[in-house]
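Think of the structure tokens as a kind of shorthand, similar to the way a musician reads notation: each symbol stands for something richer, in this case the local conformation of the backbone. In the example below we present two proteins back to back. Begin with the first one, reading the sequence and then the tokens, and try to describe in your own words what changes along the chain.
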Amino acid sequence: MNKLPMLKGYRVLDIGQFVAAPTCTRILAEMGAEVIKLELAPFGDRGRFSGDKPRDPELKDTSQSTYYFQHNHSKKSLAVDIKRERGRDLVYALIPKVDIVVENFAPGVMARTGLGYDKLSEINPRLIMCSISLAGQSGPLSDKPGFDYMGAAYAGITSCIGESDRGPAQLPIAISDSATGVTAAMAIGFALLHRERTGEGQYIDCSLIDTYFNMHEVNVPKSSLRGAQFQPKRAGSLHPDGGPTGVFRCRNDEFVAIMVMPYQWPAMVKAMNQPELLEDARFRDPRARRNNNAALKDVIETWLAQFASRDEAIVVLETERVPCAPVLNLHEAMAHPHLRARGTVRRVHDRDIGTFDIPGFAAKFSRWTPETDIKADRLGEHNEEILRGILGLSEAEVLQLYRDKTIVHDPLLEGPLQKTADGPDKARSPAID
């Protein structure tokens, strides 16, 4: 197998935080691109304050967290105060040396900071820049900052989730943050291909609302054609189109997910050994089963309750090729041999936090495999490497940037100030105050 990563030789400047932009650039990093994560001084990516931190009291000041590791491993951290003119100058100096810039601040922030696409593309016309935001860079909502769950609400997703007799339920996972990061990485790959053919850079605009809206797999055209007479309804643990499709309770608070297409209904009836259901007027055809969804759920759950476990029920269902799956909790999913064998669950080690699991790379390639020994930088860990190695700054210039706090780093890292200081200042890091 050829292990040469496909994006080796490309350089990315990641000016993002939390999940969406970091997901995009993490994918690019895993594919071999050199990703410089520009973290805003003095605190860095706000994601460093989420997730679990090291339990060792001696490491209480570290900038590392499990949340940050998951979304930002395989990158190089450069911590700069871009509100300072000298900090912006460092970014301008990097732009001719990078291929891609990714950011996920509210629309207008980059331009007001002097780092908008118009400005950066003047410096590097071949630059590909991708902005990720709640609602995009154009349209009536474009000036609205926001987070994932707001995107679900605007896209008509939240209104579909929950029990039929209650208000909409809250999504527990920021789905579009991750999905928009994947969309952005895909778009950047296509933009790189375009640039290889034409030499042209370009600007990419991705939004959480757009990503969420694309997740309506069937209801948009139905709503468009039927108008107000069609309204997607909340159906709780059941799919509103019937099937039967949904989540069904077994014994001992165990659940089975079952998805039955119309042509598979006889197989479901055979598995249940209840042939009379084929002639029951409530369940005779797909429309009848949809209209009697709740009654059918009662029939199925009464049948499932006869089994000692969900696994026994699944054996019977799979014997008749009824599509089904156990509803695993997160611990069960993480321990599943299939997810382990494919690397879907990835075991990693951080020098501060220890050993823990994160999601693995989702796509599998025949000529490349992801690195197994990955790490996430402490805040500003690659300041000197980037500023001296890429921009050619002298040690004295880097030292001055630390002194005036244009750049900072994790308190646990040793930097030029510690190396050159005498007396009580020797132990003080130019990092987070």
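Once you have a description of the first chain, move to the second and do the same.
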Amino acid sequence: MCGIVGLFGKSAAITETLGAHLAEMLVQLGDRGPDSAGVAVYRDPAPPGACKVSLFSPDPGVDWAEVGAELGAALGGASSPEVRATHAVFVVETDATAATAWLRAHRPDLRIMSAGERIEIYKEAGLPRDVVRRFGLEDMRGSHALGHTRMATESRVTTQASHPFSTGLDLCLVHNGSLSNHNALRRELRREGVEFQTDNDTEVAAGYLTWRLREGDALEAALEGCLSDLDGFYTFAVGTADGFAVLRDPIACKPAVLAETDDWVAMASEYRAIAVLPGAEDAAVWEPAPAHVYSWALEPV
């Protein structure tokens, strides 16, 4: 099971209400993944020389203002936290590599959900409709976003094992399916310096893409590498700072549908999640072919 949704805005009418549309899409796929849900939203880029970090605390009593003060004192400045339920987002006056290294060394009680220029990740165990409400997804603007509803198969039902997974700057992945060689591949990637926080198979797929991109591949080539190096069944949706991409395994075992209008591009595990979008009745709709990478990117500024 599990459900994937993705929405890429091509007009202000969509980007200004992106979170509300994504929330509707997620709720439509709640019965495909009642265990947990999560989203990656790309919005409000950090200023030059700064980065954004999304953090999760299992301690409901965490003092996010104190975390911000520590980040600012150590790294030259940090914004006030934008707190949503158990998560908080900070803009830090340094690069993302330095910020995440400091957090791992000095605040190991916190979990880094994502880091980069635009990405924010929010995820939690629970029914998708409740998770959407808890994080106030409806009021978020953004250029594009991915979401996931989970029915656990490969690891426990926890916040950290929920999707999306981010193992590289501004990169995230959501997955419907299962990988059979994730343990062996995780060991290989760790030797290459890729860090993992869970035993989830999807995090390994995200780590694989991080490694391929770090080695110099473009996103399309990195995804094509999945076809030979990842064993199992999968529909992937991948987010980057400037767009998103979709890939199905060579036999297209897991469902997916794509649709496009002048205002948006959307993907979902089932059409009912796309049908709630404005203008869906006039969209071009198709089933993505197996072993083919589909991608969309923001226009250069």
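Compare your description with these statements about the second chain. The chain has a mean pLDDT of 95.
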